[in-house]
Amino acid sequence: MAKNNEKTQELSIEEKLQHLYELQLVDTEINKIRTLRGELPLEVQDLEDELAGLETRLENLKAEIGEAEKNVTQKKLEIEKSEELIKKYSEQLNNVRNNREYDSLNKEVEFQKLEIELQQKRIRETLKTKTEREEALEYSTRQYEEKKSDLEAKKTELDDIIKETHIEEEELVKKSEELSASIEERLLAAYKRIRSNARNGLAVVTVDRDACGGCFNNIPPQRQLDIRSRKKVIVCEYCGRILIDKYICDYDGSMQKADLESALESQKKKGRRVKKTEE
User: Fold this and answer.
1) Alpha carbon of 125 to those of 60, 81, 99, 142: distances in Å?
2) CA end-to-end distance (rounded Å), the chain
3) Which of 95, 151, 158, 212 would give a disulfide with 236, using CB separation of 3.0 to 4.6 Å?
């Protein structure tokens, strides 16, 4: 790390700006590739979360249905037990010796009959709940199958896009890391901070037609001269982006030459039009 810092310190301001601009170009290309995926990764994640929630719901519903079935079985056993007791007490009524014993047995019979009615009521309530849970289970199962199908389709679509751009993205990411390593930490941190705050992801912009390429506010002539001199890092006073002249990476002068030729040709055409008008 120390050697890398020493290496970046040796670079001139112009070289640092060149590396920053090249890094910006590479990072912009990476963004374009990732934009191709659009909202697909988020949609896939949302569907996976929904499926996980539905799986939990299905498990809970199945558990509730199973519990309801156990409760019904248990209550039926309790009813059978009460019916056996009624039969037993009814037989005992035939052999009572006094009114007190007769009243006591009658009360037991009445109590068991009430117990049977109570258990039957609870069975009806439990069966109603069970039916509701079964309907919910059926609906949730349909939802689960639909979401699962959607997820498979979205995953296939996302995988196809990733396959198409995977190699190119890997190469660009590697290049971005190499360029980042050649830029001093303080400047790189500023670049990342500006880029994260910029809506279009541009931290380094050229001055074009006397204006900032990020916010399009006019740049004063003296400020433009400072930018073209490439002696210091200059930021836009309006949007905070790093400003560079558009020929910063024109290493062989071809861009500037092409622009000059285009301007001259445009001037000639304008002159010919003026001449024709005068005639």
Assistant:
1) 19, 20, 39, 26
2) 71
3) 212
Structural domains in the chain, CATH included, are 37-180 (1.10.287), 189-278 (1.10.287.1490)
Q: In what order do the strands lie in the sheet with 204-208?
A: 211-212, 204-208, 242-245, 234-235
For 71-92, give the DSSP string.
HHHHHHHHHHHHHHHHHHHHHH
Q: Is residue 212 within 8 Å of 242, Cβ to Cβ?
A: no
Q: What is the pLDDT along the chain (279 residues), one digit of tens a residue?
A: 444 555 555 788 999 999 999 999 999 999 888 887 778 888 999 999 999 999 999 999 999 999 999 999 999 999 999 999 999 999 898 888 888 988 999 999 999 999 999 999 999 999 999 999 999 999 999 999 999 999 999 999 888 888 888 889 899 999 999 999 989 999 999 999 999 998 888 999 999 889 999 999 999 999 999 999 999 999 999 999 999 998 887 766 566 566 666 656 666 666 555 555 555
| Six-digit token string for 25 | 């170009």
